[in-house]
Amino acid sequence: MLKHLHPFERFPRNPILTRDDIPYPCNAVFNAAATKFQNKYFLILRIEDLKGHSHLTLAESMDGMHFEVHPDPWIMPFPDTPYEIYERYGLEDPRITQIGDTYYLVYTAYGPHGPRIGIGSTRDFEGFERICLATEVDNKDAALFPEKINGHYVMINRPSGMGGTRGSIWISYSPDLIYWGRSRALLTPEPGWGGHKVGISTPPLKTDEGWLVLYHGIRETAAGRLYRIGVMLLDLENPEHIVGYCPHFIFGPEESYERTGDVPNVVFPCGWILEPDNTVKMYYGAADTCIGLAEARLGDLIHACQTDPTKPGR
Ligand code: BMA
Q1: Atom 3 in ligand 1: which residue has the minimum CA distance?
Q2: Considering its fold, how many domains does the chain have in total?
């Protein structure tokens, strides 16, 4: 099999985390952010409680494969204004980006008005400070770039407003992480494996060839939705410009824990870690029920973006 068509190999002892690993009652654990801090691997787990609302809990590991889950939740829906009404139904799908010595967490705040993007930060994985709710509803699937570009913070997000093509990946800019604008569509769903919607999966990773990102594509079928993963490269100076694009998906649900669960046929990475040997560990939610790990070589992912010079339109 051509390696660049299927760059990821699953960890043989997947799933690496299930609800049996959570030290308190819950329904499911999935869609985790991932990073390294003080030589340890950290996952910020999305845990869905027995009411069906999500919160975030830390898990840590020395090897990136075997994780110990903290005994208590880390970030719960905020109890007071101005956040309460927007987080009332939970915090979902966190993605983490280190800028300097600060780790910024971007998450979906979910409440009666719908989903919108929240941003907060930590320096020590103990305290967590909310910065803002950065977008209006409906918006989810956001991630920050790990450095400012031309003096601005840059965020990918996925607004799904009225009219036009819904479910496109957008890019926005901010001088201060609070006020966001200059928004543009980056990638729009096209008939095929991601024909219904697309959204960022993992925060951008800087490579010599460009910003490498994984994104998910949704296909609506007679049997329900299929969530699969694509890869692209964005220009280092102008990330609105796609410089490498893989026309096919590179990872999709195949194993029984990805095919069966609360939401079948879903793989949903929110975090990845680049290792010193240039392999990448990708952590993904499987069927909205548990967490899997898969590894790829960075070179194979970049190669996948160079299989077809045709770039998609906006
Ligand atoms: C998306 C997100 C994810 C979820 C996926 C599949 O819209 O809400 O949290 O994993 O659907 O249910």
Answers
A1: 93
A2: 1
Dist. CA 135–CA 151, nearest whole Å: 20
* Closest residue by Cα to residue 227 from 238, 216, 213, 212: 216
Residue 221's alpha-carbon distances to 132, 265, 296, in angstroms, are 37, 11, 28
Span 105-146, pLDDT tens digits: 999 999 999 999 999 999 999 999 999 999 999 999 999 999
Contact 300 CB / ligand 1 (< 6 Å): no
pTM: 0.97
- Domain span at residue 217 reads 12-304
Query: What DSSP element (H or E) covers 303?
Result: helix 298-305
Q: Decide whether any atom of ligand 1 lies within 6 Å of the 295 Cβ.
A: no
CATH number at residue 136: 2.115.10.20
Q: Examine residue 42 and state whether it is found in any structural domain, yes or no.
A: yes
Does some domain include residue 52?
A: yes
